[in-house]
Amino acid sequence: MFNHSLLLKDKDINFLEAYYRYGKHKDFNFAKYLWLIGIEIFIFAIITLFMLFNINSYKTMNDKIKSNIEKYKNIESEIERFQIMKGLLENKQIFMKDIIEGNNSLYNILTEIESKIPTNLKIENLNISKEKLTMMVVTNKEENIAQFIYNLQNYDCFKNISINGITNYEGQIRTTITADIVRK
Fold it and tell me: DSSP per residue over 19-88, as a string?
C-alpha cells in the first residue's frame, strides 16, 4: 500500500506509518489464539477428569482397605481371645497333670498299703495328705500291728513311722499309726 521509502523522507507522515502499522496489526489472527486457548482448556479438562478419576479410585481403595482393617481387627481380637483361652487351657492341663500325678502317687500308696496289710488287720480311718499318712487300725493281735509297721518300713515311700497309743477294748486292739510320705 504505502511505499516505505516515502515514509522515510517526510517525518511528518509518521501518523501514516502508525496507521499503516495499526492496520497491519489489525490483520492479527485471533482464531489461532482461540484454538490454542481451546486446546489448553481441553487438556486441562482431560487432566482434571483423570485426577478426579484417580481421586475416586483411591477413595474406593481406601474404603476397601479400611473395611479390611476392621475385619483384621476382629480377627486379631479373636486370635487374642483364643491365645488367652489357650493359655488358660494349658494352665488347666498342667494343673490336671499335677493332680493326676498326685492322685497316681496316692493310688500307688493305697495299693501298696493294701498289699502290706495282714489278713486280720482292718483300717477304720485313713487320712492321706501330700506329706502325711494317718490311719486307725483294729486287730485282735498285737503281732498284726507289728507286722504291718514292719511292712511299711520296708516300703521306701514312708519314713518316721510312729504309733500313737494302743487301746484294748473287748478284745479289739486299736492304734493310730502316722507316717511321713516321701515323694520320689
Answer: HHHHHHHHT--HHHHHHHHHHHHHHHHHHHHHHHHHHHHHHHHHHHHHHHHHHHHHHHHHHHHHHHHHHH
pLDDT tens sequence across 154-180: 888 888 888 888 888 888 889 999 998
Strand partners, 122: 138
Name the DSSP class of 132: E
pTM for this predicted structure: 0.49
List Cβ neighbours of 139 (8 Å cut-off, separation of 6 or more).
Answer: 118, 120, 121, 122, 145, 172, 173
Q: How far apart are the first and last CA of the chain?
A: 131
Q: Which residue has the cell 498326685?
A: 102
What phi and psi values does residue 2 have, to the nearest 5 degrees?
A: -90, 150
CA pair distance 79, 81, nearest whole angstrom: 5
Q: Which residue is associated with the grid cell 515323694?
A: 183
